[in-house]
Amino acid sequence: MSGLHDQPDDAATPLSPEERDGLIPAHIALRRELNEVEAQNILEASLWAFERKRALTNVDFARNLHKRMYGKVWRWAGEYRTTNKNIGVDANQIAPRMYEAMEQFQYWVDHKTYTPDETAARFHHGLVTIHPFPNGNGRWSRLLGDLLAIQLGQPRFTWGRANLGQQGNDRDRYIAALKSADNHDIGPLLKFARS
Question: Would residue 184 be called left, alpha or beta, if left means φ above 0 and alpha means ψ between -120 and 50 degrees?
C-alpha cells in the first residue's frame, strides 16, 4: 500500500513534471527537498493531532488531518483522489467506504471488539486499504493508528522504527504484513506495529 512518494527513492533524483503536479513550493526540484518539506509539515500536523483527544473515527477529522499533514506541500491535501490506482478502492467508492469504515471502527472501540492494539492496527489497515488520497495514505493512516492506540491507553506504535518510504527490509516487512492483513491475518501487522 504505497503512494507516489512512498516508493523507493534516491534523494538526488529530480522530480518529474507529473510528480510536481499540485506541488505548492515552486522551488522544489529534488526528491530530498520534497521529503524535507513533507517531513516538516507532518511534524507540525503530528504536534497538533497529539495535543488533545480527538474524534478519530470521524471522516471530517481524518480529511482535516491529511490536509494538515500535507497542506503546505500539496494543493490536493485532504481531498479524495479522483482517479483509480492499482491499489485502493475505485475513486467513486472512496466517500461511502470512508463513512462505512469509520462507523465500523467506532463500533469496535465502543464494544471493545478487539484489544486496543489490534483495534488501532485494524484501523490503520482499513484506511490504507481504501487509499483515499493521491499520496500519503500510509503515513496518514499510521498516524491515525498511533492516535487511536494512545486514545485507547496504549503507547504509540513504532512501525519498525524505520522510514517506511524507503526500500529495505523494514518496508518489505511492512508490505508483507499489510498483505497478510488483506488475507484476514492481522498478526504480522500487529507484530510489525510494535517492532
Answer: left
Residue 36's CATH number: 1.10.3290.10
Judge whether residue 124 has pLDDT over 60: yes
Domain count along the chain: 1
**3-class secondary-structure state, position 72:** coil
pLDDT at 5: 37
Cα torsion angle, 17, 45, 83, 163, sign: positive
Tell me the per-residue pLDDT of 34-58, one tens digit each, with 9 for 90 and over.
999 999 999 999 999 999 888 999 9
DSSP 3-state of 74: strand
Extract the C-alpha cell encoding 59: 471522516
DSSP H or E segment with residue 160:
none
Q: Which domain holds residue 161?
A: 4-193
At 86 the three-state DSSP class reads coil
Q: CA 164, CA 172: separation in Å to the nearest integer?
A: 9
pLDDT by residue (tens digit) across 57-69? 999 999 999 999 9
Phi/psi at 166 (nearest 5 deg)?
-110, 145
